[in-house]
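Lab notebook, design round three. We kept the backbone fixed and only want residue identities now. Task for the bench partner: fill in a sequence for the structure below.
Input structure tokens:
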């Protein structure tokens, strides 16, 4: 049975994040970057990458596996390519700064490649594509995850990799950008955590249990022995998950997954490719072809009832609804946040006051 939930306004939830991480020791700037990122994920409907991540971050912080107020360190530079060490810093600030460096280079040189390794969890990858798109840049991001394996390769029956996401940002002229952004697993790990917390099942074809048999019960990922998430699109998702290991894990000078991970930190490595259409000399064609293609793919088939959405449209719709109505927070997630905040000295009463609940 689903547990209860309450709706909290986005500004109040941002204040909750800032309140907890100020107490943890983050600078005001880091608190703002984190709060903006987490609440943007919630607003866009990706609760897996919103405030529900706070307990995991605090768990890593408490064992000194997540560093606050860190900056990306330049490891090597060649032309417009730059390799950065995220120093296991808070990913929402590390990746923001890494993208800012890439944007600066791409705007001068037409393109840039950013190999960011060893950052703590960088959250919703579409956020980084949006940052690049806001600067007028096309961007492609491959990410791998060094954490407890939860995804079985196609053909495998046990978890070997994590949910390795990919994002592509496609800016448009006079319209919001198209944002492709997904995990290479059938569902993001956090969405299975959200389903588990809510006491609901996940769709058929998402999970296998520890015996390799199909199941819809999210508890299989939170019990011992554990089941696994399947890749999306069968072998196709697996090939992309593999590419993430090679490009984000190995090529950035970071780490590809190669065993059981027991530490609390969630480490992300990301290879980002940023392209400036205006410096490529193809901007007029890019804009024209993109818009004409969009008009074509969205033109209704005779008698059709369903409309065709572009990547990024569902998130924008959810965002406007949640800005108006508040963000639903289930009681299990809220209890986990209160408990973890309590572990670093933030009282429940102070958080409830900030949240307005
Ligand atoms: P998802 O399955 O909800 O897919 C989202 C993508 O599909 C978006 O681009 C969305 O606009 C598009 N989309 C959805 N419905 C559509 C429709 N009807 N028409 C057209 N486009 C549509 O995403 P997911 O796999 O659950 O991933 C959720 C989030 O988790 C992502 O933001 C991802 O970056 C993040 N993630 C992060 C990590 C990490 O380690 N940092 C790991 C895995 C996932």
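Proposed sequence:
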């Amino acid at each position: 049975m689903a547990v209860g939930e309450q709706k909290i306004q986005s500004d109040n939830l941002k204040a909750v994040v800032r309140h907890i991480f100020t107490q943890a020791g983050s600078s005001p700037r880091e608190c703002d970057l984190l709060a903006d990122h987490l609440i943007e994920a919630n607003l866009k409907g990706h609760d897996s990458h919103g405030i529900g991540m706070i307990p995991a971050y605090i768990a890593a912080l408490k064992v000194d596996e997540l560093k606050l107020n860190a900056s990306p360190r330049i490891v090597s530079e060649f032309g417009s390519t730059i390799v950065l060490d995220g120093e296991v810093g808070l990913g929402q600030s590390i990746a923001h700064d890494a993208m800012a460096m890439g944007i600066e280079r791409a705007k001068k040189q037409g393109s840039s490649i950013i190999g960011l390794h060893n950052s703590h969890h960088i959250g919703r990858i579409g956020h980084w594509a949006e940052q690049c798109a806001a600067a007028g840049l096309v961007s492609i991001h491959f990410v791998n995850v060094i954490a407890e394996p939860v995804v079985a390769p196609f053909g495998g029956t046990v978890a070997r990799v994590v949910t390795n996401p990919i994002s592509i940002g496609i800016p448009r002229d006079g319209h919001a950008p198209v944002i492709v952004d997904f995990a290479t697993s059938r569902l993001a790990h956090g969405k299975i955590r959200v389903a588990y917390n809510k006491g609901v099942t996940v769709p058929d074809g998402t999970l296998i249990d520890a015996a390799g048999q199909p199941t819809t019960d999210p508890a299989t990922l939170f019990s011992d022995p554990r089941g696994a998430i399947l890749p999306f699109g069968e072998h196709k998702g697996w090939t992309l998950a593999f590419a993430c290991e090679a490009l984000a894990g190995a090529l950035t000078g970071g780490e590809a997954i190669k065993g059981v991970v027991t530490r609390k930190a969630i480490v992300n490595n990301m290879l980002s490719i940023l392209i400036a259409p205006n410096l490529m000399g193809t901007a007029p064609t890019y804009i024209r072809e993109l818009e004409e293609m969009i008009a074509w793919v969205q033109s209704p088939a005779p008698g059709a009832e369903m409309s065709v959405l572009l990547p990024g449209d569902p998130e924008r719709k959810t965002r406007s609804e949640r800005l108006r109505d508040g963000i639903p927070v289930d009681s299990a997630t809220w209890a986990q946040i209160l408990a973890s905040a309590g572990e670093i000295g933030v009282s429940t009463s102070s958080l409830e006051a900030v949240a307005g609940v």
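Keep this in mind before ordering anything: The chain is about 40% helix and 20% strand.
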